[in-house]
Amino acid sequence: MEKQTQRIVVFAVVVVAVAAYYMQKGSGGSGYGNVDVGEARDLIADEADLVVLDVRTVSEYESGHLEEAINIPVEVLGGRLSELNTDDELLVYCRTGNRSTTAVGILRENGYDRVYHMDGGITAWMSAGFPTVS
User: Fold this and answer.
1) Using an 8 Å Cβ cutoff, are 87 and 128 in contact?
2) Beta strand pairing call for 51-54 and 90-93
3) Which end of the chain is least crowded, N or C, by CB within 10 Å?
4) Which position among 69, 90, 91, 94 bears the catalytic label?
5) What letters, b where the CB count within 10 A reaches 16 and e where it falls short, cover 71-101?
6) Is 98 one of the annotated active-site residues of the chain?
7) In terms of pLDDT, which residue wins out, 59 or 24?
8) Half-sphere exposure (CA, 13 Å, Cβ side) for 43?
């Protein structure tokens, strides 16, 4: 009976871990959702059609951004959605992750379902030693 209890506990732990992983990644296990900077770097390298969206202010963007990132500040994102395609696969970031979280919400409310959010923003990106351009 003790081995059976151990198996049940292990199974329950695995189920909870898998569920937590998919909840963190996004609904339905789609793979979209939060990514760390290492995963973001890999996405940029591997996904040729990925649109990198910087939602910081213009001056922040000009001080340094991810290569090929487009800048649409979160404050004006709702009015500039026509610059993006709902079929695009997007990676969204800001300075630390707060404004980009808001931007992801705006995007999802408007039918953009293929959205990655870079946790920690450009601050975490630069702390990891990854390059920026200006």
Assistant:
1) no
2) parallel
3) N
4) 94
5) ebbbeebeeeeeebeeeebbbbbbbebebbb
6) no
7) 59
8) 24
Structure tokens at 22: 């998919």
Gap between the Cα atoms of 47 and 50, Å rounded: 5
Residue 57: C-alpha distances to residues 23, 77, 101 (Å)? 30, 11, 15
DSSP β-bridge partners for residue 54? 71, 93
Task: Read off the pTM.
Answer: 0.77
Q: What tens digit of pLDDT does each residue of 56-107 get?
A: 999 999 999 999 999 999 999 999 999 999 999 999 999 999 999 999 999 9
Q: Are 54 and 93 in contact (CB under 8 A)?
A: yes
**Structure tokens given for 63:** 């001080």
Q: Which two tokens stand for residue 93?
A: 């970031």
Residue 69: name the closest of 95, 105, 108 by CA.
95
